[in-house]
Amino acid sequence: MDADRLRRIADAQGPFVSLYVDDTRNTADAEKQAQSRWSAIRRHLEDSGLSEHVVGAVERAVLHSRPGAGTKSRAVIAGREGVLLNELLDNPLPVTHLRVSDYPYVLPLFDFGAFTPTFVFASVDHLGAELSVHSSAGVHTEVVEGQAFQVHKPTTAGWNGYGNLQHTTDEAIRTNVRAIAERITKAVDESHAELLLVCGEVRARTDVASALPQRVGDRVVFLPAGARGGRTSEHDVAAAIDEELARRGHDAVNTVVARFEAERARASGFAVQGLPGVCTALRDGAVDVLLVGDLGNATVVAGENLTAIAADADSLSDLGEAPRRIALADEALPYAALATGSAVVRCDAETALTGGIAALLRYPRPSAEEPRAAASPSARRAG
To answer: Is 372 exposed, middle or buried (0-12, 13-18, 19+ CB in 10 A)?
Structure first.
């Protein structure tokens, strides 16, 4: 999913419906279970006072969207005008998550793997390749066949003919490899893929990778070939693909956390944690990356504008903003981040963040974690 799609949700009007529900359709009674789940969801939506227009739009997304293959879940976020997001998620959900609120509840999208980077998978040999482009638009597949087909060297030949046959075979390989590399390059450039996964027999995949321009070659990760050599289906290496994507996601989070800890350790003013400081930074549009840990049932106070948030009513009133609502922090903080163009990173339970929340800032600010400056010497003397 493109993060820009979430930012567009911030421009919509609420109240918002945020629904995360099982969408597995590979069992005999799948339709019956889906109808049963929807009946309970509809009752809750109607009891929340939502219009039939919104309820009907959510129903169509839940019951009539194109199903995915295998075990899936579905994320649906709707606003006053209808459905804003309808996304299949690979991770199954044991229970349904449903909220109706002034804020969209987007945090589960970061938990359930909705932000897989765009990538190209290429299973190659010296004859051609099978490509699949995975992006927010879905999966596009194609087969690339080289134009030169004599790529197998003869096992026996007379001395006079062997050199010519070998030369012909080597030239055919080079021709095919160039054609494969050109098509892979086009797929990567057109999709803006961050990652190129190449699978195949060692020599074939090495030859193809060597023929790629550096800007594409820098994104290559090799996957193991199948047991029989030659081209391997994407299904056969699905576990290796998932492992590589999970590793990259984990590394990206660790990089952000390490940067936060380094900035905090040197008191640079680029790092802040805890609800009061993070709310202030979000309100001022100063957050570059929001780090979200376990917020539990923490709440914030918001004004008329949904991004005018504070840790308590007094802090908001001090800014001349009348408190209008109390909101769950796990809804309001990610929303404010997206509305102000900030990135959101979900941290695991092992990451120690004060109050379960922290931020890297766009510019240095006085630390909100420190107590207010002591009174000036003249003030102390006067006291």
So the answer is: exposed
- Residues 125-155 as b/e (b if ≥16 CB within 10 A, e otherwise) read bbbbbbbbbbbeeeeeeeebebebeebeeee
Task: Name the pLDDT band for 376 (thresholds 50, 70, 90).
Answer: very low
Mean pLDDT of 183-192: 95
The mean pLDDT value of the chain amounts to 86
Residues 129 and 176 sit within 8 Å (Cβ to Cβ): no
Q: Are 165 and 154 in contact (CB under 8 A)?
A: yes
Residue 231: what pLDDT?
82
Distance (Å, whole) CA 358 – CA 280: 12
- Which pTM does this prediction carry? 0.81
Residues 6 or more apart whose Cβ sits within 8 Å of residue 118: 133, 134, 135, 136, 191, 192, 193, 194, 195
pLDDT level of residue 365 (50, 70, 90 thresholds): confident
SS (H, E, C) the chain: CCHHHHHHHCCCCCCEEEEEEECCCCCCCHHHHHHHHHHHHHHHHHHCCCCHHHHHHHHHHHHHCCCCCCCCEEEEEEECCEEEEEEEECCCCCCCEEEEECCCCCHHHHHCCCCCCCEEEEEECCCEEEEEEEECCEEEEEEEECCCCCCCCCCCCCHHHHHHHHHHHHHHHHHHHHHHHHHHHHHHHHHCCCEEEEEECHHHHHHHHHHCCHHHHCCEEEECCCCCCCCCCCHHHHHHHHHHHHHHHHHHHHHHHHHHHHHHHCCCCCEEECHHHHHHHHHCCCEEEEEECCCCCCEEEECCCCCCEECCHHHHHHCCCCCCEEEEHHHHHHHHHHHCCCEEEECCCCCCCHHHEEEEECCCCCCCCCCCCCCCHHHHHHC
d(CA 300, CA 325): 9
Q: What is the pLDDT of residues 24-72, one digit of tens each?
A: 877 778 888 889 999 999 999 999 999 999 999 999 999 998 877 667 8
Tokens of 295: 């917020």
Question: How many Cβ atoms are within 10 Å of 232's Cβ, its own excluded?
Answer: 22
pLDDT at 206 over 70: yes
